Automatic annotation (TrEMBL):
Protein name, as recorded: prolyl oligopeptidase
Domain Peptidase S9 prolyl oligopeptidase catalytic: residue ranges: 455-664
Catalytic activity field: Hydrolysis of Pro-|-Xaa >> Ala-|-Xaa in oligopeptides
Enzyme Commission number(s) of this protein: 3.4.21.26
EC class (word): hydrolase
Species assigned in the record: Sphingopyxis macrogoltabida (Sphingomonas macrogoltabidus)
Residue ranges annotated for the Peptidase S9A N-terminal domain, each copy included: 9-336
Entry's Gene Ontology cellular component terms: cytosol
GO biological process: proteolysis
Domain of life: Bacteria
Keywords from the UniProt entry: Hydrolase, Protease, Serine protease
Molecular functions (GO terms): oligopeptidase activity; serine-type endopeptidase activity
Length: 667
């Protein structure tokens, strides 16, 4: 942190930030009601709704069966229940018993977190209503409440002790800096099953951290930095003290050391010598002495190492190769045993979007010497699979409910100012590539998170309607090496947007689409991307839909949660150099009066604490004031929803409304 104060920036729409101002909320209500009425009255709404309902899958929340002890846990949608429920079964294919139904608490409630104990007899669960989370421990045998934890406030990430005596959890707290300022900081607590929580002496030099327990329960680590994770503290459970590890002198500043304990070694995927990453085994008792490390897999160009999971006597290594995910089997000595054959090119994980969380968590769930996961692609919805890491075979446990057999998928490349950009074009075989089909281009490009061509419910519905769906892999994302990430983050964030411009220009040059029939959409960081296209290159598109966007990079500090998140990838607006770089692409500050803008829909969650709805309000107000075209600039704020956290019914409603808006504007 620097003592220099960033220069003041004009804030003409600052009045619309205040959620406590009745006039602001009335403005939001009127704007939202207008949008709802317009979209409901669209002549395209019924056709869009039919396509969405035929292809919808909730990839944000549905999970693969995951084994703990002798029980298998899974979040699923059950006919007749409004929300995803948590089930438990004796095998991944047996009939399931509902253990947690959040709608028992509130019709709009969702399961925020669920952490079964290692033996599968207890469950630490958080039920969210309007982003307020109620935590409790349940008995898996009968669903009874063992204990409630009203003292845990905020989103908690937990890790059970092996003997079920309690769990570690991290939650957002506050700390006082050397200069007396108060700053947000994730604290780690030990919560015994009986007794009061104990704050752990694990001071972090990153604003975000979370506990991880080893598979055998002998070690616990506190990981930090959600974009380039590394253990900052480790502790041997049987009487050991917390030990700080990987201080700057113990490894290159900013290097990732993401991994898991394997016995008394910590196996780490690290970019300390190559951006493509190598796998090293680090003795837990000499963490900070690289001369004792063993290299298990050397870095190789074009093979991105992503995640490891201990599975019996084997280790599942996840990689990204050619923009899609692969699974590699290793033995406990680190020997490469080969690749089990996956169902196709795409993505896999414990969640439908599990690969997005791969930077922080395991991708697959262990089952002896096998692992279980969901797999999907742009042409097929999620199926459940088990890979035998010894025999290198893959078994289908549950077929995809949405095999899109009439789709065609093509992988292409565009050239931007920073180099090549990979993208995929999805369409029905009957849809022409002559510029007549309405086209949506989507992307993410941030936080070192991989954006793999997995099943997209919106993409499936859009192509069912006769449109083109374009999936991009942009700088700033985690699909390639560390350089690829760094070329689209911090002071080089513009690299993400330049890649998006290159893809759109390429599909126009190929004759696949025209500007007036091209739309863009993205969520969260992808919402920022969408608004950047809208403000920087309005000539390239006819419409944009920004889901839960962050639009004002200058005034982020008013909210501690998003500020803590964006510091890792955008910068700190309190630092003048960062503030100047952020303001240069901040969408609200790039709006120019008298510009003929394309159509815009900003879609926010009323209870979203990650990208609060004032960002969407402010973007819409600024764009409406500046726009000189006849295209619509609209706001939608959804009650009872958070940051892509909502019921199945509300997800479907959002998809229908957004695709109706885009079809109205582009078809």
């Amino acid at each position: 942190m620097t003592d220099t104060i960033a220069p003041a920036v004009e804030n003409p729409f600052g009045w619309i930030e205040d959620d406590g101002d009745a006039a602001v909320i009335e403005w939001q209500r009127q704007a939202n009601d207008r949008t709802v009425a317009e979209l409901a009255a669209s002549p395209n709404a019924a056709r869009v709704a039919a396509a969405v309902n035929a292809t919808f899958e909730d990839l944000f929340a549905a999970t693969a069966p995951e084994r703990f002890g002798d029980s298998w846990f899974r979040k699923v949608q059950i006919e007749g229940r409004p929300n995803l429920v948590l089930t438990v079964a004796s095998s991944p294919t047996d009939a399931e018993r509902v253990l947690v139904d959040p709608s028992d608490h509130d019709p709009a409630a969702t399961i925020a977190i669920c952490h079964p104990s290692p033996d599968g007899t207890l469950l630490f669960v958080g039920i969210s209503v309007d982003q307020a989370v109620a935590y409790r421990v349940l008995s898996v045998a009968d669903g009874s409440v063992v204990r409630e934890f009203p003292s845990i406030a905020g989103y908690a990430l937990g890790a059970w002790a092996y003997d079920n005596s309690g769990f570690f959890y991290s939650v957002l707290g506050m700390k006082t800096l050397a200069d007396g300022q108060v700053a947000p900081q994730y604290d780690v607590w030990w919560q015994p099953l009986a007794g009061e929580a104990e704050l752990q002496p694990t001071e972090l030099d990153f604003p975000f951290g979370w506990p991880v327990m080893s598979a055998d329960g002998r070690w616990v680590s506190v990981m930090a930095n959600q974009t380039a994770p590394r253990p900052r503290w480790i502790r041997r459970i049987d009487g050991g003290e917390w030990t700080r590890v990987l201080a700057e002198e113990g490894g290159p500043a900013g290097s990732m050391y993401k991994g898991r304990f394997v016995g008394d070694e910590y196996w780490a995927i690290t970019d300390d010598t190559s951006g493509w990453c190598r796998l090293v085994a680090i003795p837990a008792d000499s963490f900070d002495d690289p001369s004792n490390w063993r290299e298990l897999i050397a870095a190789r160009d074009e093979i991105k190492l992503v995640s490891i999971t201990l599975c019996g006597e084997h280790v599942a290594l996840t990689t990204i190769e050619g923009g899609v995910m692969r699974l590699k089997s290793l033995d406990r000595q680190g020997r490469d045993l080969g690749y089990p054959p996956l169902p196709g090119d795409g993505a896999f994980g414990l969640m439908g979007f599990g690969f997005i969380a791969a930077i922080m968590s395991d991708v697959v769930g262990p089952d002896g010497d096998s692992c279980v996961f969901l797999h999907s692609s742009l042409t097929s919805g999620c199926g459940v699979y088990r890979a035998d890491l010894r025999e290198l075979t893959v078994e289908e446990l549950e077929a995809s409910a949405h095999p899109l057999s009439d789709r065609e998928l093509e992988r292409l490349s565009a050239t931007g100012p920073n180099g090549p950009v990979t993208y995929w074009v999805l369409r029905k075989r009957s849809t022409p590539l002559d510029g007549s089909a309405p086209t949506i281009v989507t992307g993410y490009g941030g936080f070192n998170a991989p954006w793999i061509p997995s099943y997209s419910a919106m993409g499936a519905a859009w192509t069912e309607l006769g449109g083109l769906w374009v999936h991009t892999q942009l700088r700033g994302g985690g699909e390639r090496d560390t350089q690829f990430w760094n070329e689209g983050r911090m002071h080089r964030k513009q690299g993400t947007f330049d890649d998006m411009f290159a893809v759109i220009e390429d599909i126009h040059a190929r004759g696949f689409a025209t500007p007036e029939r091209t739309g863009v959409t993205g969520s969260s960081n992808g919402g920022l991307l969408t608004c950047a296209v809208f403000t920087q290159r309005p000539d390239l598109i006819g419409a944009a839909v920004a889901q839960v966007p962050v639009c004002d990079l200058v005034n982020l500090a008013r909210d501690p949660v998003p500020l803590n998140i964006v510091k890792a990838d955008y910068g700190d607006p309190a630092i003048p150099e960062d503030a100047a770089a952020m303001r240069a692409y901040s969408p609200v500050h790039r709006v120019r009066a008298g510009t003929p803008y394309p159509a815009l829909l900003c879609d926010a969650g009323a209870a979203d604490t990650t990208c609060p709805p004032w960002h969407a309000r402010k973007m819409v107000a600024a764009a409406q004031d500046a726009n000189c075209s006849d295209r619509r600039i609209r706001l939608r704020v959804r009650e009872g929803t958070g940051h892509n956290a909502m019921t199945r019914e509300l997800f479907i409603e959002r998809d229908v409304e957004e695709l109706t808006f885009l079809w109205d504007e582009l078809a």
